[in-house]
Amino acid sequence: MAPARPAAMVVLLSDRTATSTSAPGRQGPGRSCVPPQGPSPAPGPDPRRTPQMSTTTAATTVTDTGARTEDAARLITGARERIDDLDGRIIGLVQERIAVSEQIQRARIASGGRRVNLSREMEILTHYSDQLGKNGTVLAMTLLDLCRGRV
Ligand SMILES: C=C(O[C@@H]1C=C(C(=O)O)C=C[C@H]1O)C(=O)O
């Protein structure tokens, strides 16, 4: 299980001014893919890699959530925990699907049959596209890719 996060990573510092002239969401000047020249940087966390907890500029709260108010940040943080939980369960289900699919493929191959069964795959593609539209087809193809050919 993912560690519990604080309800909202928001710090309201109305009298704080931005330390750089960059726009909200940017992490300051000199942000580039090319490492800076000269002596090695001082030890400690690389500020370019440190998540921005909160910056208040002109009464606008910018947090890791992208929200502009504490209420919105709290809602987003809570909803993200639910999404993390759902993603964990989805990944678990995909892993379970891979294992069951492997069992079927092994049994068919051991019986002298082929690993792949295209008519069954068509059924699955149709099921997903009926329920989720054309991206459902993409999702089903990805699932079949994950499940097929591991035996
Ligand atoms: C699991 C099977 O074998 C293969 C894998 C499939 C899947 O992962 O859903 C579907 C069809 C086959 O290509 C099956 O025939 O049911």
From TrEMBL:
Question: Which Pfam families does the UniProt entry name for this protein?
Answer: CM_2 (PF01817)
Compositional bias annotation for Pro residues: 36-45
Query: What ranges does the record give for the region Disordered, renumbered to this chain?
Result: 14-66
Against InterPro entries, the record matches this protein to:
Chorismate_II_sf, Chorismate_mutase_highGC-bac, CM_dom_sf, CM_II_prokaryot
Where does the sequence pass through the membrane? none
- Compositional bias of type Low complexity: which residue ranges? 50-66
- Name all Chorismate mutase domain ranges: 70-151
Protein name as annotated: Chorismate mutase domain-containing protein
Q: Which organism is it from?
A: Streptomyces luteireticuli
